Amino acid sequence: MVNFDLRQLSHFVAIAEAGSLRGAAETTFTAQPALSVSMRRLEDALGVELFTRGARGVTLTAAGEAFLVEARRTLLHAEQARQSARLVGIGEWGRIRLGFVGSAVYRLLPKTLPEFIARYPNLKLELLEGETVRIVQMIREGRLDAGVIRTPVDDVHGLRIVDLETDDLVAALPSSHPLSTRERIALTELADEPFVMFSKTLVPGLRAVAVNACREAGFVPQVAQEATQALTIVGLVGSGLGVALVPGVIANFTSEQVRFVKLSDAVCRHCLTLSFAMQDESASAAAVKLCSTIAQKCASLAE
Questions:
Q1: What is the pLDDT of residues 123-137, one digit of tens each?
Q2: Rounded Cα–Cα distance for residues 182 and 38 (Å)
Q3: Domain edges within the chain
Q4: What is the pTM of this model?
Q5: pLDDT at residue number 85
Q6: What is the pLDDT of residue 4?
Q7: Which CATH class is domain 169-268?
Q8: CATH topology identical between 94-166+272-302 and 169-268
Q9: Alpha carbon distances (Å) from 206 to 125, 200, 212, 272
Q10: Residue 174 and residue 240 in contact, taking contact as beta carbons nearer than 8 Å
Q11: How many CB atoms are closer than 10 A to CB 118?
Q12: Among 73, 79, 54, 81, which residue's Cα sits nearest to residue 12?
């Protein structure tokens, strides 16, 4: 078995390029006797002579010429491996698998990801849209590195949660609805309407906030339809299947069939939160950098 190390390869390349032990000793800050011993051991390991030694220095043998090409390549690959490991270790190279809820694409991600991409060009983002429940599960299973989710969530054990931005609940009404032209309405004015609600099982957080807001207003909403994605809910409202309570950021979506109206109820203001979630103890350095960048950007935008 051939046994030599990167230090010996480095010595060999230095001697070959300098043409003498003295020159290599100066460039490597290594004593000549130590270089001589290093090369003897390398030649013993290979079973061939790499240098022809003379009074004026050393010259490469044919075997040495061939070995020099591969030695340089090996040292280059070793340096690349070192750099890759270092960059991954400090979170500046590799990939981040990021889950996100649909409403994050309207403001939060477009406002924050470009800065992160520009700052860390060697980090590749792999994005997956999903519901908070699914994203949290995938983070726990190690299938996602982090997620932008809706909070609160029932179980945050083992997770690090960083709040990013808050939002209001607004009413989504068919454009033909008598209240659709108003600038602001009270929830009680929708008490007799059929509601299109977020799924109780797949989007329990948003569903609970909407239902609790209705209860605070003195009524239990009549749920006519359920859906998972906010845009689906908006589409169902536009189809005349009911009214809905959705995050205010969805109002950035324009539709001729739907109008978004603010709610005067205090319970509807700042009641929704988008948060960053990742493993508490084993989050990657890259995920921590992503969280920090997004949180700092959100804070600056809120000022």
A1: 889 999 999 999 999
A2: 85
A3: 6-90, 94-166+272-302, 169-268
A4: 0.71
A5: 72
A6: 84
A7: alpha beta
A8: yes
A9: 27, 9, 10, 8
A10: yes
A11: 8
A12: 73
DSSP states of 30-70: --HHHHHHHHHHHHHHHTS--EEEETTEEEE-HHHHHHHHH
pLDDT tens digit string along 247-297? 999 988 778 999 999 999 999 999 999 999 999 888 888 888 899 999 999
User: 79, 272 in Cβ contact below 8 A?
Assistant: no
Amino acid letter, residue 245: L
CATH architecture of 6-90: Orthogonal Bundle (1.10)
How far is 46 from 2, CA to CA, in rounded Å? 6
For residue 1, pLDDT beyond 60: no
The answer to whether the beta carbons of residues 246 and 169 sit under 8 Å apart is: yes
- Residue 183 has phi, psi (to 5 degrees) of -80, -30
CATH architecture of 94-166+272-302: 3-Layer(aba) Sandwich (3.40)
- The DSSP element (H or E) to which 77 belongs, if any, is helix 62-89
pLDDT surpasses 80 at 48: yes
pLDDT of residue 146: 95
> Which of these, 67, 249, 262, 75, lies nearest to 164 by C-alpha position?
249
Q: How far is CA 95 from the centre of its chain?
A: 8
User: 186-227 pLDDT, tens per residue?
Assistant: 999 999 999 999 999 889 989 999 999 999 999 999 999 999
